[in-house]
Structures
1.
Amino acid sequence: MVSATTEGGRTRTWVLRPNQSLTWRQAKLFFGVALAVSLGVAISFASLGFWPVLPFAGAELTLLGAALYYCQCRGQYVEVISLQGNRIAVEKGRCTPEERWVFELAWVQVRLQPARFSGHPSRLVLRSHGRQVTVGAFLVEEERRRVARELRVALAAADVRTSAPD
């Protein structure tokens, strides 16, 4: 999911997030329903003498809970690309920025690298002076192309503004 904003004509920001089908509340509700149904069935079988069902139900619920937690944590990941003044900054992290890259606007290149193998996604890369950062790896192909196009247009417009005489 991509959202782009412009503030005062000089600052442009793109916020990239993975698509997330469930909120935390919905995931907890789903897990609670699955827990109640699975334990209800397992306890009823255990009461009929099939007690070995209980450990398998516990393992199943543990794995389901771990998978839901993992997916919800991955859904909190965010990448923010900020074009401000003569710099472009990329911040990545879960809930708060954990990594940050800053590039000079005049030297940064936006590259959409094709996939090495058929059926694999392309890579959107910002690079300058031998350093590079991949952004939007979790986006679908069309979103990745749109972000690349918007970044190129914004960089060209910013370059025109910064090189124009006063």
2.
Amino acid sequence: MSLSDQQIEKLLKLVVSSQPDDLDCDGCFEHIAEFAEQELAAKEISEAMQVVQRHLNQCPCCQDELNALMEGLRELE
């Protein structure tokens, strides 16, 4: 399987935008509930949660998890 030029460009952008303190998915899941609470409360994302935000911006799987969590929390309100 070979990658298209568009896929290669997307991968390169992800590599360039990664930072040494970036989380993996497990690290993101540890903080996703707190992140969701801040989002629902319309609070400014704390500096600590910005690492989670960066991961969510790059990871569709974790973004899906956040969306499901947010939907569930909204239903509880």
3.
Amino acid sequence: MNDSQFLKAFEDCTLSAFPHRSPIHMAWLYLRAHGWDAGLRHIRDGIRRFAASRGATDKYHESITVFWARLVLA
């Protein structure tokens, strides 16, 4: 699966799995494409939407999301 297919599947919530490296990959793609402000919005919205599609809305954590996004950007 290439990067654009990965993001489409993530955005459509059709990924069969979202292992630990996937959020980092997704964050890197969004930040690279959109910069900090818009990239972080895509990351936040995407994680919330994906978690909701799995009935796991409690899995989103703002501080952890921003922390990893900052690390990815560094």
4.
Amino acid sequence: MSLKPIPADRLIKALAKVGFKPVRRRGSHLLMKNDEGKTIVIPVHKGEVLGRGLLLKIIREAGLTREEFLRLLRR
């Protein structure tokens, strides 16, 4: 399965499965943090999807591989 653009809510649910929790929301950006202190900013725009490039950047920031992330989406 290849990485395809997805809505922000699917990304947020997948990151929550590996311990990221919403810390705050400011405008259209959600800040998520895990227990190790890693923070990720996710743009949340209704009706829009996150492109492959941004998804790859967020996946790397979360410390995940592409395969791990795709497994999280399937669960």
